[in-house]
């Protein structure tokens, strides 16, 4: 894992020292809120509905066990004993006091973490495949390049006041687990005809009020050209992007309004200049960074204990079926630890759970953890012989929910339980859906399904790319939930289509039940997933299930 | 005839704690909605908002929120403001946490 250089450590310490002074001046009255607000946002501090909120970056979703323990310590010392993992692989603390935030930032600095550029019109935390460095289908570990981008983008003087926020995601696998097509820039590692690795560069994706799937701006970019090419895209956007209207300021609108070809031409022109200016310094740095991400020395031992547990223990077998993924090393597995126990808040972890996860990472996972954009925790490298005992310890702590990829593995933004932007709640809808389908006993039968819930049009809950998306709105002073169908977050990304009028808070769970019962009735056997059935049949049978009264009216007419 | 003015309260967040606060008629900041001054006149509301906005070292982001008279004082109208009087729905945190503790002490 990457370790801060002396430069990095000094930079973060200096920023923390500056922010401590800024907080003191705000509290003394020397700074007004208008003056202070951009300063606190640069350091990840928001003011939410009930309290301040500190958003801490987890670069490309990678944590070591010491960092996880420190996150738990911070939760206990300065917050309410828990943290919330987000769809950009960050952690949010919902209850810090303003006067304590400088101490929290210092505590983060002790474990080489910070909250810089987790807000504002800057390049945000670079996200990556949460199976990076472990996945069997991986071409290259995307994290070295994600770290290179982080170092380049952090405090980059030209990109501190972009027209709008800017999000970059990187994947090293053909199976896209990083939602690259919903980012301002998506970077996909691919191989060319000669078998050399390089990047397919995507631009102009994003969700929010104008959802768009990113388009390919470069079908193959040699690895060494990545940073100058990114700089060319960012500086083109910085000049061409609109600053007159916040809702038209994201790069997706810039690309859409100018046309991809015109945008690409402008990028290529700058790239021709920048490429020579970089002069290879970035590649020397990348080589150093890459060395820090060398995989652990994978243990070589028999996996008999795993095979025996699979044969003997039905609960273990079920969990292994949903929560394990193929590792590049045959004797290892990737473990998804669900933070979606039925009825709990998606993405929340208590300090006790964080400490246990850190201990388990040390005992069975080479000290490494990952946070997924789907708001779960990953142990990327676990020897299969350790899985039965790991499962038993997770069971004791209520962390062995076997639902990864199933209905209750729901993405939900904080919604109006915390967020000032929200127009309705998301968390209780997720809780009720999970509990309802557990009570019905239908979750396993329904199988693979992505439900994603946002509490406002900004779409932090990725509802547009959910197989079933739920968007909470305020309709005349009442919470109302719109359903979208057919979204896809993978390499085949698609924006879901709105099914029809929204549902009241009390009606949304029964509506989803009708929808999923229609799926069970229509599918060609259990092997046909919800999204495959939807693609085969189109929306008609699902809309009929969602709006039975209207279907009856049509039949009567 | 002009439309009847919907009464307002002045609400904000406390600078240090971040907690939701309401301006009272005697110029305090209360943590309780029912202690807020219920403002029935638009011009007076603007003056009270100005008064709140001037208190830069005490509160952040003051604004006028619709409210109505209730048996124990002003009550929120919109669900967002109702949530602000309580806290989140997934944990007993925020104002409802203090309310729960006070009930235990009774």
Tell me the count of domains of chain A.
4
Strand content of chain B: 15-25%
Number of domains of chain B: 1
Structural class of chain B: alpha+beta
Within the largest sheet of chain B, what's the order of strands? 3-2-1-4-5
Number of strands of chain A: 21
Could you tell me how far the N terminus lies from the C terminus of chain B, measured between alpha carbons in angstroms? 50 Å
**The CATH superfamily title of the largest domain in chain A:** Sulfite Reductase Hemoprotein, domain 1
Quick one: biggest sheet of chain A?
6 strands, mixed
Give the averaged pLDDT of chain B, no decimals. 93
Give a structural overview.
Chain A is α+β, with helices and mostly antiparallel strands. Helices cover 40% and strands 17% of the residues of chain A. Chain A has four domains: 6-61 and 75-110, Alpha-Beta Plaits, CATH 3.30.70; 142-292, Sulfite Reductase Hemoprotein, domain 1 (2-Layer Sandwich); 304-396, Sulfite Reductase Hemoprotein, domain 2, CATH 3.90.480; 411-556, 2-Layer Sandwich (Sulfite Reductase Hemoprotein, domain 1), CATH 3.30.413. In chain A, the strands form four sheets. In chain A, strands 16, 17, 18, 19, 20 and 21 form a six-stranded mixed sheet that branches. Chain A has a five-stranded antiparallel sheet with strand order 1-2-5-4-13. In chain A, helix 10 crosses helix 11 (314-323). The termini of chain A are far apart. The mean pLDDT of chain A is 97. Helix content of chain B is 29%, strand content 24%. Chain B has one domain (8-105). The longest helix of chain B has 12 residues, at 42-53. In chain B, a hairpin with a 6-residue loop joins strand 4 and strand 5 (75-76). By secondary structure, chain B is of the alpha+beta class. Chain B has helices spanning 42-53, 79-86, 95-105, and strands at residues 8-14, 20-23, 29-30, 59-68, 75-76. The A-B interface holds A 26-29, 32-33, 47-52, 80, 94-99, 345, 348, 416-418, 425, 427-428, 431, 474, 477-479 and B 13, 15-20, 56-57, 60-61, 77-80, 83-84, 87-91, 93-95.
């Amino acid at each position: 894992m990457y370790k801060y250089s002396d430069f990095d450590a000094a930079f973060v310490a200096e920023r923390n020292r500056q922010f401590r002074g800024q907080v003191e001046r705000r509290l003394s009255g020397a700074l007004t809120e208008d003056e202070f607000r951009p300063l606190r946002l640069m350091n990840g501090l928001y003011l939410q509905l009930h309290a301040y909120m500190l958003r801490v970056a987890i670069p490309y979703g990678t944590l070591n066990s010491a960092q996880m323990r420190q996150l738990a310590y911070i939760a206990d010392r300065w917050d309410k004993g828990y943290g919330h993992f987000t769809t950009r692989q960050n952690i949010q603390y919902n209850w810090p006091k303003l006067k304590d935030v400088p101490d929290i930032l210092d505590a983060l600095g002790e474990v080489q973490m910070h909250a810089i550029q987790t807000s504002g019109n800057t390049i945000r935390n670079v996200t990556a495949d949460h199976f990076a460095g472990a996945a069997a289908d991986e071409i290259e570990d995307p994290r070295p390049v994600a770290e290179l981008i982080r170092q380049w983008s952090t405090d980059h003087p030209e990109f501190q006041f972009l027209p709008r926020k800017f999000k970059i995601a990187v994947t090293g696998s053909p199976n896209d687990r990083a939602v690259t097509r919903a980012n301002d820039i998506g970077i996909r590692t691919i191989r060319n005809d000669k078998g050399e690795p390089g990047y397919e560069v995507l631009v102009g994706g994003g969700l929010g009020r104008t959802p768009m799937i990113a388009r390919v701006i470069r079908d193959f970019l040699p690895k060494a050209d990545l940073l100058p090419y990114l700089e060319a895209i960012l500086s083109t956007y910085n000049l061409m992007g609109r600053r007159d209207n916040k809702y038209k300021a994201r790069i997706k609108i810039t690309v859409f309004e100018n046309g991809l070809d015109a945008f690409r031409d402008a990028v290529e022109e700058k790239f021709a200049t920048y490429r020579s200016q970089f002069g290879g310094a970035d590649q020397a740095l990348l080589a150093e960074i890459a060395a820090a991400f060398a995989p652990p020395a994978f243990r070589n031992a028999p996996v008999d204990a795993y095979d025996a547990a699979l044969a003997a223990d039905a609960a273990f077998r079920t969990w292994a079926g949903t929560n394990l993924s193929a590792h590049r090393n045959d004797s290892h597995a990737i473990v998804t630890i669900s933070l979606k126990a039925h009825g709990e808040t998606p993405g929340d972890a208590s300090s006790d759970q964080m400490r246990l996860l850190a201990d388990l990472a040390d005992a069975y996972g080479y000290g490494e953890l990952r946070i997924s954009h789907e708001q779960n925790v990953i142990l990327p490298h676990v020897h299969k012989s350790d899985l039965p005992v790991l499962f038993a310890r997770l069971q004791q702590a209520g962390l062995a929910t076997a639902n990864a990829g199933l209905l209750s593995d729901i993405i939900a933004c904080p919604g109006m339980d915390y967020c000032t932007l929200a127009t309705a709640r998301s968390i209780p809808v997720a809780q009720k859906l999970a509990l309802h389908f557990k009570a019905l006993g239908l979750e396993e039968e329904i199988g693979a399904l992505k439900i994603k819930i946002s509490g406002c049009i900004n779409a932090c809950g990725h509802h547009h790319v959910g197989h079933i998306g739920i968007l909470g709105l305020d309709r005349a002073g009442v919470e109302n939930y719109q359903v979208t169908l057919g979204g896809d977050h993978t390499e085949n990304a698609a924006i879901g289509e709105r099914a029809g009028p929204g549902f009241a808070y009390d009606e949304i769970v029964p509506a989803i039940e009708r929808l999923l019962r229609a799926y069970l009735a229509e599918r060609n056997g259990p092997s046909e997933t919800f999204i495959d059935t939807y693609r085969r049949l189109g929306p008609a049978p699902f809309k009929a299930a969602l709006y039975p009264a209207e279907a009856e009216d049509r039949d009567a007419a | 005839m002009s439309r009847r003015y919907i009464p307002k309260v002045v609400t904000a967040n406390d600078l240090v704690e971040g907690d939701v606060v309401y301006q009272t008629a005697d110029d305090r900041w209360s943590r309780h909605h029912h202690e807020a001054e219920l403002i029935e006149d638009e011009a007076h509301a603007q003056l009270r908002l100005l008064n709140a906005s001037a208190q830069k070292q005490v509160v952040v982001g003051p604004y006028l929120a619709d409210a109505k008279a209730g048996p124990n004082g002003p009550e929120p109208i919109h669900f967002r403001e109702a949530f602000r009087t309580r806290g989140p729905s997934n944990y007993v945190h925020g104002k409802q946490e203090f309310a729960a503790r006070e009930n235990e002490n009774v």
